[in-house]
Every structure is written in structure tokens, then in C-alpha cells.
Write a structure and sequence with these properties.
Number of domains of chain A: 2
Largest sheet of chain A: 4 strands, mixed
Oligomer: homodimer
Largest interface: A-B, 37 and 37 residues
Number of strands of chain A: 6
CATH architecture of the largest domain in chain A: Orthogonal Bundle
Shape of chain A: globular
Number of helices of chain A: 5
Strand content of chain A: 15-25%
Radius of gyration of chain A: 17 Å
CATH class of the largest domain in chain A: Mainly Alpha
Distance between the termini of chain A: 44 Å
Order of helices and strands of chain A: HHHHEEEEEEH
Structural class of chain A: alpha+beta
Chain lengths: ~140, ~140
DNA sequence: TTCCTTATTTGTAATGATTACAAATATATA
DNA sequence: TATATATTTGTAATCATTACAAATAAGGAA
């Protein structure tokens, strides 16, 4: 997706496509590593040294609000973000902290819930996230040694 | 569960049953409201005014480490804890912040994953958490008005 | 019980992520 | 171009969590 397409996408979601917002969104799309605020900040600062950390916060909030980016509830020390919107779960290694995507078939999560997840004792379910934790391949190998 | 049974349970999980730890665990078991550290601290401080906030942190870490308490990855501003170990998901209202339990049949989550969740591209899955978000019954009613 | 060793608790200080805020800047519209 | 509005910036404040060392409590041995 080029920058112009991104701009249109942001517009259609009610987010004004400023240079800074495009930079952040472009980084998220191009680096599906579930980066923290600081990782994003360091990356976009390389080309634009006056980029403000506050702008990264503001932009991520705006993109999450618009539904273009997910904030991952992985309950670590810092928040992680993901611009990938295809349904997938996340696995977090408790040893090294790495986060891996786990593909899921569409609707597998909602299928677990009554009414297909539409309602839930009167609640309106809007978002869902399946988080797994444990030892990644590398770390579990280390443990065996 | 009385305090003596709790003490035995803690012992069997390698956690020395001190007065403070029993108080925290008793509070969690008796108040399945997914309390924050501060909520626990305020509660146990009523009877024991010298209870330290640090002890609440230490105790929750110890109980989580021992597998007696779950730390909920709901990605809010503060961590929430749950002593209920029966498999269930959590629904968090984005408007009021309330957290509700969502019952799940045993193994429904792991059944979504390859190999029943045992392995995952070489990863050892140890924990799992299904988080839902949206508007609770009360808040969605408010929205309609 | 008393002594001794070790683990835990306490309270304060430090850390680090996030937010508040106001001035400066950019953007969109007329 | 001029004007109004939204965004960005940088600093300061906030708040949850952690680090740390002294004080205290718990458990075992004599």
C-alpha cells in the first residue's frame, strides 16, 4: 500500500492524513512486529528528528480509535500495537518477551460465544483478543539444556 | 475455604502462608471483581493499617508465580487480578471499565489451536486468555438514549 | 523456650510509561 | 491570501510499578 492509498484509508476512517500519522501507520504496516510506542518513536525519528513522542502517542490513539490499529492486551510493561486486522491470536514468550502471530480462522473466537458473540448478557461485543503465553521455540530449547 | 485450607493450598504451591499473603488471597477469593493492586491494598489496609503496598505487589507476584492467581491482560492502565481458575473469558466495557466473567466450556480455547494448543510452531503454550471488549448492558442502554 | 538463620514486610526513593498542557506549527476552507 | 481549526511539539506532571535497605516475622535447631 503506497502513501496515497494510506491517506485515503485514513480519510475514510475520519483521520486526517498528516505526514506524521502516515509515517506511523506506514511503519506499523511495514513492520508487523507489534512494536511499542518507543520502538515506533525511534524508527520514525530517524528520518524526522523533530518527531515528538507525544505525537506517536496521539497518532496511535487516533488510529486505534478509528479501528485501523489494535492495541494488544498482552499486559506487559508497555503497550504494543498492531496494524494487522486479519483475525489472529498472539503468543507471548514469558522468557524473552517476543510476540508471535497465531493465525485463526475467521469467526473461530466468536463461535465460542452465545449468539455468535453478538450479545452477551446484554453486552455489545465489539472487540476480541485471544492471548497465549508460554515459552517460544528458542526459549524452550534453552530450558532443556 | 477457611484460612487454614488456604494456608495448606499456599504451602502445596510453595508459597509460605504469611498473614499478609493469606489476607490478599482471601480478599481475591471473596471478591471476584478482578481488583487492581490498589483495590486490594485499600481493602486489606482497613483491618491492618500497616499493610504495605509493596507487600501487595510482592504477594500478587508470588501468587501468580505459583499459579494460584491470574494476571488479566486487559491492557488498561492498571493490572487486574483474578483468583478464579475455572476457564472463563473476560469482557471489559470500554465505557465504564467494568469487567465481567464470560463462562467458557473447558478446552474451548485450546481446541482452536493446532495440536490442541500443546505446541505452536515449537512454542510451549502455558497460559491463555480470551478478552472481549465493547459496551456492557448498562452503557449500551445509555448510548441508545 | 530461646537462639539463629532466612524469608518477608515495610516505607521511601527511583524508574519508566503515559498524560496534561500551552505555545508553535500545519492544514483546510473561505 | 486570510482565517479558523486541528495537529504537533516539548516540557512538566502523573501514576503504576520496581528497587532497595532496614525492620520484622517465621521456622528450625539446640
Amino acid at each position: 500500500m503506497d502513501r496515497q492509498q494510506m491517506a485515503r484509508l485514513l480519510c475514510s476512517h475520519g483521520v486526517r492524513p498528516t505526514q506524521q500519522r502516515l509515517s506511523v501507520y506506514e511503519y506499523l504496516l511495514g513492520h508487523p512486529i507489534h512494536p511499542s510506542v518507543d520502538t515506533v518513536y525511534e524508527a520514525v525519528s530517524v528520518d524526522q528528528p523533530t518527531f515528538s513522542r507525544t505525537t506517536v502517542y496521539n497518532t496511535l490513539h487516533a488510529l486505534v480509535q478509528a479501528g485501523l490499529v489494535r492495541e494488544l492486551p498482552l499486559c506487559s510493561e508497555e503497550r504494543r500495537y498492531d496494524a494487522g486486522l486479519t483475525p489472529h491470536a498472539h503468543f507471548r514468550c514469558v522468557a524473552c518477551g517476543c510476540i508471535k502471530d497465531v493465525p485463526l480462522a475467521q469467526d473461530t473466537v466468536t463461535s465460542l460465544l452465545p449468539d455468535g458473540g453478538e450479545t452477551l448478557a446484554g453486552c455489545m461485543v465489539q472487540g476480541q483478543e485471544l492471548s497465549l503465553s508460554g515459552l517460544c521455540a528458542a526459549c524452550s530449547a534453552d530450558h532443556e539444556v
